[in-house]
Amino acid sequence: MTETPRTVPGRSAPLAGRTALVTGGSRGIGLGISRLFAELGANVLIVSRREPSLLEAVRSITETGVDPGAVLHRVGKADSEDDAHASVALAVERFGGLDILVNNAATNPYFGPLVGISRSQADKTVAVNLWGPLMWVQAAWEQHMREHGGAVLNISSTSGIDVDVDLGWYGVTKAGLIHLTRLLAMELAPAVRVNAICPGLVKTDMSRALWENGEDGVAATMPLARLGSPRDIAEAAAYLCSDAASWVTGQTLAVDGGYLVRPSA
Ligand SMILES: NC(=O)c1ccc[n+]([C@@H]2O[C@H](COP(=O)([O-])OP(=O)(O)OC[C@H]3O[C@@H](n4cnc5c(N)ncnc54)[C@H](OP(=O)(O)O)[C@@H]3O)[C@@H](O)[C@H]2O)c1
């Protein structure tokens, strides 16, 4: 599906003058968020592990008319403290601050029953999905947000709410991220708002195994009868990170095509 830039009459750049950092912003949901934020006027720093994907992401965002100077990339890992601090420092240095942090990168190295997961798989999932977001918040807080305020958005999952068999440990980390969101919202208020989104099944590389052999059948189980797109998540992200949500913190919004309210099997 081709995603067209959003235009809002009289309010076309609600993120103008803001700087956003998006972890895992080179593909999928993170790219969708980076693209929409740039279209809405923000400076965006995209961080992920592989430079070719980053370069392609920057190209695809700027080719639609976004100012090339407004989109930066940096190679970095979500579970690296050095990368967290250096990436925030880069945003501050190049754009003058960091107003929005989107903790989007995540991993799921294991699919199967909880009793079969190894220690290294479990540790890696916690490091990227749970410790990572907290560490990036620490870096943003220390270098800019404590003094200047800001908004944090954590990308969790419906697997952090529902019982998705075979996605168990990933779901545990995503449930933890929802709780972390609530705790940080209390701890960092009133300077920084902290919210979360729980995407349902969105058509990306990460979820490919869940939809590529029968997308129509999967869509038919969803109340809104289709899989999500990165743009669906980005629209909610733009709301939660903009002044339109200036009285919203500690909340988790499911953007899932009705998945969580479907009749149980
Ligand atoms: N797709 C879904 O159905 C779905 C549903 C619920 C929740 N979510 C959540 O949405 C978020 C994005 O998922 P997605 O489906 O968009 O995934 P994706 O298409 O696989 O994209 C993942 C992005 O994160 C980067 N990345 C992966 N591991 C990283 C790491 N350790 N450090 C830094 N960057 C890393 C990837 O680039 P590199 O590989 O180059 O690093 C890529 O830019 C995740 O938090 C995921 O749990 C997705």
UniProtKB/TrEMBL annotation:
User: Is the keyword GTP-binding in the record?
Assistant: no
Q: What are this entry's molecular-function GO terms?
A: oxidoreductase activity
Under Gene3D superfamilies, the record lists: NAD(P)-binding Rossmann-like Domain
**InterPro entries, per the entry:** NAD(P)-bd_dom_sf (IPR036291), Sc_DH/Rdtase_CS (IPR020904), SDR_fam (IPR002347)
User: One Pfam annotation, family name?
Assistant: adh_short_C2
The residues forming the signal peptide are none
Keywords tagged on the record: Oxidoreductase
Indicate whether Zinc appears among the record's keywords: no
Name the family: Belongs to the short-chain dehydrogenases/reductases (SDR) family.
List the protein's name.
3-ketoacyl-ACP reductase
Species of the source: Planotetraspora silvatica
